[in-house]
């Protein structure tokens, strides 16, 4: 994981680096640090998020060259010594790194045999010393980077300062994202566009094995064959990458409250002029498939469960849904003519990248990525990409992206069977989302107050409501650190009911007419064992005493219509417990290590 920034020739390097790293905190925040070149390389770093950088950096300094890093620890615990930037032994080269070097131990052993000393537990310190080793003999950075590239196994996005090149910031990329921001009289580098958006709207996405340097006036990129390449910048509009909180206290709240807009946008883009707007070749490939396999992680996996069930019900296509990290170790693609749908908000999730590699190596199977991130690593490897257009999602807990994923899968299903009713059903969810936003926040907050001091919470549902329960449970544990479990109502009696004890909060979703009465029986079973039950029901299925009642909608769209209830609940519990809602412990937004 980790986020990196770098700049050459920018007027306010201190602000750029600190503010930029704050925007990349979603990539990890175990420690943060900055390195810059004056007469020598200066490094300031410590554990904790980029917020502490203001305190540990000199209040002003002049430099042409700056690099910075926010870390999600992989090799070595979060500590000052393991923080980036890392310096080479002769202190003349410094670098920041996002990724994992798989052969770090081997390379360390080699460097130890050459007299190198190591002070941290990181793979990054191995990289900087190997670069120094090559540089000391070649006296040339281009040659050194080529040699380094040949030796490193694993993933890396590197931004590098060498004292002998006071005008150049070097870079090298494989597997981890790295982007150049093209300025006027300056140039920038970062893990994504957000830190650079204030300074430019022209960005170059580096490709794997690209290396080279940026100076004030030049951008030189060499590809894997060592050829100088001219990668054309793409222009991005500031709004689509903005991290502005727009008056909200937290990104999570802002992003929950954007769900209605996100759904409207998806409909307007993918059903423009009253016609479905998907690539006709994509639809053809999907129609010809005899099995659709979905892969995702976390929230995106939960969206795939919904999508798979919708495809089965509405399109009569058999589907299988896999957690990416599980499938990779048993990589069987079901069907004689399969199609694979990968779902990833970030498009950078390492487990999925691994799966895609396997799929491409073994089979000639068409693949579709549903993602929020144009130009992401995954989108470069798949046959088709469909964008969520949900706007940047900053909070580690995914909310609006989940609703957008489900909405898009529903639209895709509608397009496949030319089913116009799907659009009508989706449009109906917007009123439900709005009425939750306008009328139910206070009662949800009251439930949050009642459950916040419990150690365990259960979520129950059947079918689509079970899928939503899984997502509600993940969200609660992720940001409130309360242990929670989601079960299909019918599974309770097969074991989990043993856990029901006096006062245990059980949150039940009842929105599906076919499962409602079974769920009511399940409620009686847990109530009679002392559980405190909170029912979320649609009006036509509601009963006296239900905690939250919402207008009716097409029940297979729970993930769009009422996911905000689950999100608000987790949000309020986390807030009441005094936790950092947007940056839960131990997590990062983009999981770029397996
Ligand atoms: C959700 O709240 C999580 N933080 C996490 O489960 C996330 O959905 C998962 O890591 C997958 O990420 P992706 O969609 O970017 O691939």
State the shape. Answer: globular
Structural class of the helix and strand makeup?
Answer: alpha/beta
Q: What is the subunit organization of this protein? A: single chain
- Biggest sheet: strand arrangement: 3-2-4-1-10-9-11-15
Report the portion of residues in β strands: 15-25%
Span of the ends, CA to CA:
10 Å
Report mean pLDDT, rounded to a whole number.
95
Alpha-carbon Rg, integer: 25 Å
Low-confidence stretches: none
Q: Give the proportion of residues in helices.
A: 25-40%
Overall strand count: 25
- Biggest β-sheet: count, sense, barrel? 8 strands, antiparallel
Number of helices: 18
Hetero compounds: 2-deoxy-2-amino glucitol-6-phosphate
Features of this protein?
single chain, 594 residues, 8-stranded antiparallel sheet, globular, binds 2-deoxy-2-amino glucitol-6-phosphate
């Amino acid at each position: 994981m980790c986020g990196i920034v770098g700049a050459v020739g920018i007027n306010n390097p201190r602000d750029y680096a600190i503010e930029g790293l704050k925007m990349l905190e979603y990539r990890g925040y175990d420690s943060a640090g900055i390195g810059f070149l004056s007469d020598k390389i200066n490094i300031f770093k410590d554990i904790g998020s980029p917020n502490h950088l203001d305190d540990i950096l000199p209040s002003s300094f002049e430099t042409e060259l700056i690099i910075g890093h926010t870390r999600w620890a992989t090799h070595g615990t979060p500590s000052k010594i393991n923080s980036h930037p890392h310096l080479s032994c002769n202190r003349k080269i410094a670098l920041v790194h996002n990724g994992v070097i798989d052969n770090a131990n081997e390379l360390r052993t080699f460097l130890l045999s050459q007299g190198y000393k190591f002070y941290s537990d990181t793979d990054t310190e191995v990289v900087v010393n190997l670069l120094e080793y090559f540089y000391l003999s070649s006296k040339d950075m281009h040659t050194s980077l080529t040699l380094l590239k040949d030796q490193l196994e694993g993933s890396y996005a590197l931004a590098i300062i060498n004292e002998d090149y006071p005008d150049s910031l070097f870079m090298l990329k494989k597997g981890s994202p790295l982007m150049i921001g093209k300025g006027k009289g300056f140039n920038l580098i970062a893990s994504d566009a957000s830190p650079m958006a204030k300074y430019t709207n022209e960005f170059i996405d580096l490709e794997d094995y690209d290396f080279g340097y940026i100076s004030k006036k030049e951008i030189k990129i060499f590809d894997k064959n060592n050829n100088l390449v001219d990668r054309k910048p793409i222009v991005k509009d500031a709004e689509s990458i903005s991290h502005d909180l727009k008056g909200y206290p937290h990104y999570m709240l802002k992003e929950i409250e954007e769900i209605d807009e996100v759904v409207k946008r998806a409909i307007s883009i993918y059903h423009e002029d009253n016609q479905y707007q998907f690539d006709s070749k994509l639809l053809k490939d999907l129609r010809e498939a005899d099995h659709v396999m979905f892969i995702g992680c976390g929230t995106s996996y939960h969206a795939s469960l919904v999508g798979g069930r919708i495809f089965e019900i509405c399109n009569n296509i058999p589907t299988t849904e896999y957690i990416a990290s599980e499938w990779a170790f048993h990589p069987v693609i079901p069907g004689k003519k399969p199609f694979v749908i990968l779902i990833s908000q970030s498009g950078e999730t390492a487990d999925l990248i691994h799966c895609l590699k396997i799929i491409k190596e073994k089979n000639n199977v068409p693949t579709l990525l549903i993602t929020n991130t144009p130009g992401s690593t995954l989108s470069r490897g798949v046959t088709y990409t469909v964008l969520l257009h949900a706007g940047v999602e900053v909070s580690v807990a995914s909310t609006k992206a989940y609703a957008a994923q489900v909405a898009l899968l529903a639209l895709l299903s509608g397009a496949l069977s030319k089913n116009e009713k799907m659009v009508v059903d989706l449009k109906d969810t917007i009123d439900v989302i709005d009425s939750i936003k306008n009328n139910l926040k206070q009662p949800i907050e009251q439930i949050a107050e009642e459950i916040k001091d419990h150690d365990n919470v259960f979520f129950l549902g059947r079918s689509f409501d079970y899928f939503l329960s899984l997502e509600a449970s993940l969200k609660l544990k992720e940001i409130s650190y309360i242990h929670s479990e989601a079960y299909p109502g019918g599974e309770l009696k097969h074991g989990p009911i043993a856990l029901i004890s006096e006062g245990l909060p059980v949150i039940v979703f009842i929105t599906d007419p076919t499962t409602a009465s079974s769920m009511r029986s399940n409620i009686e079973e847990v109530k009679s064992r002392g559980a405190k039950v909170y029912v979320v029901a649609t009006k036509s299925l509601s009963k006296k005493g239900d905690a939250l009642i919402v207008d009716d909608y097409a029940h297979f769209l729970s993930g769009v219509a009422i996911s905000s209830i689950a999100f608000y609940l987790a949000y309020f519990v986390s807030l009441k417990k005094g936790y950092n809602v947007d940056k839960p412990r131990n997590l990062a937004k983009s999981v770029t290590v397996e």
